[in-house]
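Board notes, transcribed. Complex of a protein with 2-acetamido-2-deoxy-beta-D-glucopyranose.
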Amino acid sequence: MQPNAAMMAVVLLGNLMLPLASAQNAGFVKSPLSETKLTGDTFELYCDVVGNPTPEIQWWYAEVNRAESFKQLWDGARKRRVSINTAYGTNGVSVLGITRLTLEDSGTYECRASNDPKRNDLRQNPAMTWIRAQATISVLQKPKINASTEITLSTNSSIIPVILQCSLTTDHTSHRESFWMKNGQEIPNTRTEQRTTVHRIPKPRADDSGEYLCVYTFDKAPNANATTKVNAKPDITGHKRSENKNEGENATLYCKSVGYPHPIWTWRKVDGTSYKDIDNSTGRFFITKRDNYTELNILNLDIDTDPGTYECNATNEIGNTAETTILRVRSHLAPLWPFLGVLAEIIILVVIIVVYEKRKRPDDIIDDDEPVGPMKTNSTNNHKDKNIRQRNTK
Ligand SMILES: *[C@@H]1O[C@H](CO)[C@@H](O)[C@H](O)[C@H]1NC(C)=O
Ligand SMILES: *[C@@H]1O[C@H](CO)[C@@H](O)[C@H](O)[C@H]1NC(C)=O
Ligand SMILES: *[C@@H]1O[C@H](CO)[C@@H](O)[C@H](O)[C@H]1NC(C)=O
Ligand SMILES: *[C@@H]1O[C@H](CO)[C@@H](O)[C@H](O)[C@H]1NC(C)=O
Ligand SMILES: *[C@@H]1O[C@H](CO)[C@@H](O)[C@H](O)[C@H]1NC(C)=O
Ligand SMILES: *[C@@H]1O[C@H](CO)[C@@H](O)[C@H](O)[C@H]1NC(C)=O
Ligand SMILES: *[C@@H]1O[C@H](CO)[C@@H](O)[C@H](O)[C@H]1NC(C)=O
């Protein structure tokens, strides 16, 4: 096979890769893929090569229609917009990234790999010692979308409908349609082919706050979108009113919120009318915070220091709100109380009987002396009493 024919094939096939004769050992596992991008966006190209020894990887670039004049790309090139990250293990893996794309970044990007010991010998034809894989990157002007960037819902509960609007003010190629998204999810029934699209929130609540996106789709270009942030004061929608635990157990208090931006969470202890920071000198308090959720974990509850009222406070740029949870801590002995109560009752009863009997004894003697007729029943009673007395005195 003629090496020149192979070279021609590489150039003609563009995106495809062909191993060249002298580098039998290097081969592509993953080669970069062609893409169309918008100005201001970012792209990444992947190149994954096998070989023994592990092949070296390089990235090269040629401007549109100048495929004969490749130049090598370096990490940090084009005012640090180019990054090259390569790792050599059993495979060689490299990622070429370019950020803040401009129209001039369009062109052909080539991943070259070789494990030929003579690959960097200037007398060798690189086309013989390196394998190559190409991708074409086309950068298009980003369409302009006119939209408001931010809306703040009134803290007043008065109901003023909110209207979100986007309009496409430039389009290089005709658009297909548009739709709305909220917090990363498409809002159903918002697709339209108009250049201007409107999303109405008739009765806005804190729940409606978040990040809204209008997205325009095109036939032969990436989607374009504009973001409108709908801000609202946080509202705590979930928390425990009280938590009852035994000493030595763990307690978990939590708060959930709606409202946007996601709040900054704090926890403190309410001390009458004032507040105290949580005293973590014992290292038993753990706070987790996740966007719209926070948790306060208290391990190994202490009956003296831990009971009380705890407050979670959600604060964002629009406002703040707080809710409280009462933590009660019972003694270890608490589950024994019913049993102790019965025991105490028995003891009291016995004491009463003993005291009663002791007082009664002189009367008994008098009774025995009395020579009155219908005393038979009485005397049997006295026998019983004696029995009890004997038992008790033992
Ligand atoms: C953008 O829209 C606002 C009203 O929604 C309008 O006042 C403004 O003129 C528009 N800007 C452009 C460039 O179209
Ligand atoms: C809030 O609503 C009340 C009536 O419900 C009104 O008097 C007040 O001016 C409103 N405040 C703001 C800031 O809009
Ligand atoms: C919105 O546009 C940005 C920047 O162009 C892009 O990175 C993102 O993927 C787009 N999002 C959607 C949902 O189209
Ligand atoms: C309390 O939490 C700690 C740490 O998560 C755990 O090791 C321990 O077993 C828990 N104690 C109880 C009583 O659940
Ligand atoms: C909290 O945020 C998560 C993801 O960020 C979301 O799935 C969840 O619905 C939100 N919960 C509330 C109450 O807003
Ligand atoms: C409390 O102390 C423990 C141990 O030092 C630490 O891991 C934890 O993050 C602290 N919690 C808070 C809320 O500061
Ligand atoms: C929440 O915390 C902020 C900042 O510390 C404070 O200004 C605000 O008064 C607190 N809100 C409530 C309801 O306690």
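Residues 6-23, 368-380 have pLDDT under 50 and may be disordered. Residues 145-232 form a domain with the Immunoglobulin-like fold (CATH 2.60.40.10).
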